[in-house]
Amino acid sequence: MRARMFFVCLITFAFALGCAQKSFVLADIPSVPDVTAAAALAISTGPLPDSVSPSSGHVYVPIYGGIRMSLITFARDGQFDPTVKFDIFTFFEATKYLMLEGALGFTALSADTDPDGWLPDSRGLGDGSFFFMPLTFSAYLNLPIAISLESESTRSLVDLYLGGGAGLYLIDFDVAADAVHDAEAIYGLRYYDQWVDSTVAFHIAGGLNIFLNEQAAINVDLRYVMGMAQTHWQAYNTSAGVWMRDDDWVDIHHLQIGVGLCVEF
Questions:
Q1: DSSP E strands, the chain
Q2: This prediction's pTM
Q3: More confident residue, 39 or 109
């Protein structure tokens, strides 16, 4: 199950990245009689920017990708343990002040899906292990806040970004072995099982991209995720001779603080 989730997310993420890269490498600049495309651009807009290749006539938009490690703390006390999350992420500046980001994350943590005791007679039957795989997309207002030119080809640039986005959170939940044992031994519930549905969640975020040079940057990211996931349980009640089933919601609101390293590709 987890392997299938991983490959589906990875293929989707790679496809979206490829489409974005193709969309933002602009078409050839139209030719002007007796003037090259690069010279025409310089005449009409001023000095030729670094992102324009005189030989090809294309406007090149740098795309950065990297890995980010984050500490996650959940808003609901007693439901999830704090954990570490890893993201593969990529971003690019669609315009001077608009930055787009995509990320594919991975995290596993122990959880109690029953902090309020909605499962039959016991708070312990909700224990298990969560595996989250969020596929998120974000749009940010991008604001350069510090620029210093070290040389003609190398720069140190700090960008502040503020915005938000949404994501598909693929979830896999494994019931703890002790919960399955207690369900039958104490409560007479055989074939006890519980699962959690994947869900969509939203986030607000801000952070810094600190460029070490034109090809590498350190990313500092702070975001708050808001979402709910539906959980279900079922078991066979040996005393009554009937199947039992119920549904509830799990709060996955959490704060995420992360640091990453990315390079141009």
A1: 63-74, 83-93, 98-112, 127-149, 155-175, 189-196, 199-211, 216-226, 228-237, 242-251, 254-264
A2: 0.73
A3: 109
